[in-house]
Amino acid sequence: MTGTVIFDPLIPWPVLAIVAAIAVAGVVLALWRGLSGWALRGLAALVVIAALSGPVYQVEDRAPLTDIVLMIEDESASQTLSDRADQTAQATKELAVEIESRDNTELRRIRVGDGDGDEGTQVMAALNDALAEEPRARIAGILVVSDGIVHDADQAPNLPAPMHLLQTGRTTDWDRRLVVRNAPAFAIIDEPVTLTLRVEDSGAAPTGASTAPLEISVDGAEAEQFTIPIGVDVELPITLPHGGRNVIQFTVPEAEGELTDRNNTALIQMNGVRDRLRVLLVSGEPHPGGRTWRNLLKSDSSVDLVHFTILRPPEKQDGVPVDELSLIAFPTRELFLEKINDFDLIIFDRYKRRGILPAIYLDNVTNYINEGGAVLVAAGPDFASADSIFRSPLAPILPAQPTARVIEERYVPMVTDLGHRHPVTTDLGDSDNWGAWLRQIDVNHRTGEVLMTGVDDRPLLVLNRVGEGRVALLASDHAWLWSRGFEGGGPQLELLRRLAHWMMKEPELEEEALWAEANGQVMRIIRQTLGDEVGPVTVTRPNGETVETTLDEVSPGRFEAQYFGPEIGLYRLQEGEQSTVIGLGPAAPKEFERTIATAEVLEPVTAELRGGTVRLEEGLPSIRNVRAGRPASGRGWIGLTPRNAYETRDVTQAGLLPPWLVLLLAGGFLLAGWLREGR
């Protein structure tokens, strides 16, 4: 029970102030005139003014509320190192007993694990949530049992009470970690890209070690061994062996006595791209679609195009002096003997033998294909003639043989069942809405895959692999009708783009491929095939364990499955002869970027209300009560601030000056003053 006097004036305070001023003026006037009853008049005025101010005696029935202590227990990954988990469990157990035994005190235990994704330890987020649920006026103290490695210290709230860090870890702890300073997302194939690495020792590292071993593995292959200095940035040139995703793993073997090897590995996933794709386009007799291939290739900024159109064959004898011709001579020897291997693709667009390219040059083109080159033949009527390019050393590598018949009739190109499974022709749209072509060269299929057909299901687009290279035959010169919008047009640009890039071995257009796409710890496994079914994919985890995953067909030729990787690291995938690797999550998560226990991160927060840090290896601190604003920590002790919070259950009020007493006192003082002045 508590009692206090409060005022509830009967008239507004400004009016009461005016009345008081008039009363004071009257008393001063009486004193100036020498009236002996001025004091009694003043007392009467004082009684009236006091009555008008409405004094009330208020009594509150209060119930004391308990103080609340918040104890945040760090259970993040870095707390599993060494014996920190045992330190935390022992300290929180003893602290809970001591706090709960204190009078008028409650304990709130808050456990904090790893943040979502790779956010690290989110102690301040947990503290903000706890303060939002508890009355701040009752918080007597905040205890954080942690190694001090907190990743959201910048989100610290305004603290209602002192905060203390009870720090786990040992002064003898030390750790070695591998840091990748820079790693581009893309690099040019067969050209070195420089990565900057650094090996750092932290904590009580042993003296005398100046170098560390480094292992480098590409796509899970056998690692190469190197030795690099410790504490120095090392520039390391890396050459990507192939296009698409390259997974590079750097590993520093675990040293004796270090806290963990989780930060000794770095996984870099880098996409290999070609610097410039070089294409040689040789056009024969001009025709309405003569610029189709040129426009397509020139629109791609990654393609360097060398284009020759043969306008003056050797048999053309028109008497024009050579020095008056504006066209340059066709550098056949330079292109087809000396620099042929510099090209990624050679396109013969309606080319026929006219004596310009001798047989030895075309024979060199065959060798170029077997060694990994690519040739595309866009056939016109010339392909069916006696001068056909088929009747040359290129014949053995061409996938179809002309019958010498040119079909001049309307037809709509159709994608075959195999074509619906091939990346070049899959998902091109609804063929019912495509425009017609008006010419097709009749050919007999010899080898390779027929992806499109024309008149009476005759082969229209045939692809084949020869040796290490690739060959394609398009048995029509009317693809340009689609680009002109004839009868609604068709997907000419996408078809020819895919065709050209398949021949230049772009990884995303491989018809037999296995790859995976990562989203956090979940990977989407994708198998592209021309077959009707695939076997299960064998997943090899970073720890060496294997598990098989069954794939489901989601579209023709495409099989997929979702797989959750329980560990962070490098996963190997195998299905038949197809294999790939993928890294899930960061090789060294944020929790392991800094592993040595420290008070530096939380020191600005604990110092706000004069809290402190105690190392648990030195023993558990005692707990004291301290007043607000006083130092809340010292050698071997930490302080809590009692809040003396209460709940008001009932309030009663009683007037101090009843009306009859006011009337009696005021009248008595006035009468006494009058009698004194009139004696």
TrEMBL record:
Q: Which UniProt keywords apply?
A: Membrane, Transmembrane, Transmembrane helix
Q: Which lineage is the organism of this entry classified under, starting from the top rank?
A: Bacteria, Pseudomonadati, Pseudomonadota, Alphaproteobacteria, Rhodobacterales
Q: Which InterPro entries match?
A: Class_I_gatase-like (IPR029062)
Segments crossing the lipid bilayer: 12-31, 38-57, 657-675
What is the protein name stated in its UniProt record? Putative membrane protein
